């Protein structure tokens, strides 16, 4: 009986902790959602409870966002640029990480560290020389400006991340594939990549998230409203001097963050799953 009560108490304690963390992490989404549908008078009245609707919900903030700004265009630009950057990152990072992971001796490790160190250079030091490169290429005020420059910080980190996944794959598996008649490239495509799906998905999410959050390069290289991304267009056109369009601002943030949050949750198990357990078996 005592043991059963202890087990029940442990389960309840775990659920309380999980529920507390879930509420803490979900609160920003709740705040954005309730602010998006509150009337302006309800938002600014200090006597009203900020956590509930004190007046009837309204769609005025969403109407303003969709009809008075280019939010849908910014969202499409962000999605298009993110997809292009993800493709470029995978094409460059996957083979480079595999080559470095299989490079014997200290050379591979040192070279990987050197590549990762380039990721640590802050964009505030690079946007001026990068702007000169973009101008020389004639890509100013186009989406290509950020599609070309974003891989400079997504590729180094992705290489460093994937090196850990590839090193975790036993070389015996590849040697067995070579004995069975596969070429080195065939073993890489048919064996290594399927085992490393968790790492590749992590790179995809990481790269796309960086594109949606990056501000300095997008602000520097793109000036016209129709070519801007969500991270630049929303704060520029919904914060005008000392006037903050809080309802529309929160609605834009919610709509931009929900897809990424959903993808994170859908593939969460793949991120934390074992990388080579099934292959070794």
For the secondary structure, the number of strands is 2
Content-based structural category = mainly alpha
Give the strand line-up of the largest sheet: 1-2
Largest beta sheet, briefly?
Answer: 2 strands, antiparallel
Residues in helix, %: over 70%
CATH structural class of the largest domain: Mainly Alpha
Overall domain count: 2
CATH 2nd-level architecture of the largest domain: Orthogonal Bundle
Low-confidence segments, given as residue ranges, are: 274-281
The secondary-structure element order is HHHHHHHHHHHHHEEHHH
Give the CATH topology of the largest domain.
MetI-like fold
- Rough shape? flat
Q: Please identify the oligomeric state.
A: single chain
- C-alpha-based Rg, rounded: 24 Å
Mean pLDDT: 83
GO biological process, one term: transmembrane transport
Membrane topology: Multi-pass membrane protein
Domain ABC transmembrane type-1: 75-267
Subcellular location: Cell membrane
């Amino acid at each position: 009986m005592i043991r059963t009560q202890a087990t029940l108490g442990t389960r309840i304690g775990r659920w309380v902790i999980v529920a507390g963390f879930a509420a803490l992490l979900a609160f920003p989404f709740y705040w954005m959602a309730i602010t998006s549908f509150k009337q302006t008078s309800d938002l600014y009245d200090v006597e009203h409870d900020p956590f509930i609707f004190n007046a009837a919900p309204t769609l005025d903030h969403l109407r303003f966002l969709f009809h008075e700004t280019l939010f849908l265009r910014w969202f499409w630009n962000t999605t298009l640029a993110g997809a292009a950057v993800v493709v470029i990152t995978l094409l460059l990072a996957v083979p480079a990480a595999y080559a470095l992971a299989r490079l014997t001796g200290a050379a591979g490790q040192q070279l990987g560290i050197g590549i990762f160190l380039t990721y640590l250079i802050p964009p505030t030091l690079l946007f001026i020389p990068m702007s000169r490169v973009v101008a020389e290429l004639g890509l100013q005020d186009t989406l290509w400006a950020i599609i070309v420059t974003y891989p400079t910080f997504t590729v180094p980190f992705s290489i460093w991340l994937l090196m850990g996944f590839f090193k975790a794959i036993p070389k015996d598996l590849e040697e067995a594939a070579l004995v069975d008649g596969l070429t080195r490239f065939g073993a890489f495509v048919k064996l290594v990549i399927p085992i490393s799906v968790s790492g590749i998905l992590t790179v995809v999410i990481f790269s796309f998230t960086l594109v949606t959050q990056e501000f300095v390069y997008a602000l520097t290289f793109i000036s016209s409203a129709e070519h801007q991304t969500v991270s630049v267009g929303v704060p520029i056109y919904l914060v005008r001097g000392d006037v903050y369009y809080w309802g529309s601002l929160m609605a834009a943030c919610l709509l931009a963050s929900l897809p990424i949050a959903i993808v994170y949750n859908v593939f969460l198990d793949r991120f934390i799953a074992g990388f080579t357990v099934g292959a070794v078996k």
